[in-house]
Design a protein that fits this description.
The chain has 1 helix and 28 strands. It is mainly beta. A 4-stranded antiparallel beta sheet has the order 1-28-27-26, with no helix packed on it. A hairpin with a 4-residue loop joins β4 and β5.
Length: 344
Amino acid sequence: MKTFLITFFIYFQCYFSVAQVNYFIYKVVNQMHLEGDRGWDYLSIDTKTHLLYISHGTMVQVLDVNSGKLVGTITNTNGVHGIALAPTINKGFISNGQDSSVTVFDLQTLKTITKVPVTGRNPDAILYDPFTSKVFVFNGRSNNATVLNGNSNEVIATIPLSGKPEFSVSDGKGKIYVNIEDKSMVDEINPVTMKVEKEWSVAPGVEPSGLALDNINHRLFSVCDNGLMVIVDAEDGHVISTVPIGDRVDGAAFDPLLRRAFSSNGDGTLTVVQEKDANTFKVLENIITQKGARTVTVDTITHHLYLPTAEFGVTPEPTNDNPHPRPSIKPGSFVVLDVMPDSK
């Protein structure tokens, strides 16, 4: 009976929120400036402490989103990509692409506990699975995942993958999903056996990057390089629907209470998609953010979204060693955008 009441309450809240959809738009309400002129990738929010962990060059900056103040910095994270938070064991885990390692740190003190070499090259996305207390590190240049024991910090397995892994999500019940960028697929991993059990195509999506999950309706939101968000059934892998998104996407998020999926696009837009029911999806709006704001995280309590970016200078000419150069970053311009739904 208790489980039924909790489920009913969640669906009642979701229904009410969806009913109010026409009364909300999203807008950038704040820009939080941080020092540093290097590149960035993923970011993670602790919804209980309101601390935002931001990958930035060779460090992770920890920002109090309520005050907008920097509360700490975790250094020596060379080529940092992602941050996985594990509050139940008071640890965080950072993937360091340049030296192929994981930094383990204390969530309370932000001090480094240890650095662990991974069993692959260029660790990128990283995930803590609460179901097994394991850390899954997805190595972008070796097509595999390193698994750590979250309690002991020891490497316990290496999982071969179908191709180049991008972002990943856990359902917290024994399934992990990861986008396979170069094969346009999703791999489903059993975190207990530490093996890939299923492989699904996301066609017509091409080169998926960001991934989000509706854990109630079992829907995966895979954002792809060809301007599509592909919605996949997380139980049997069939494609349910697609919706258009912006260009140069890299991140996705899902707000379970509002039943909205988000695509953060490097072209300077954020696509907001409403889940009307388990099989019906509609783009609500494409709001203007800022060029380069391609990764995102959502605070599922406050419904704020956070996107890092900066201002750009001139793009260098291509060379044989660097055929796809990136534009320079203007000094002092790194910022985290705070986006929120605003009642009208």
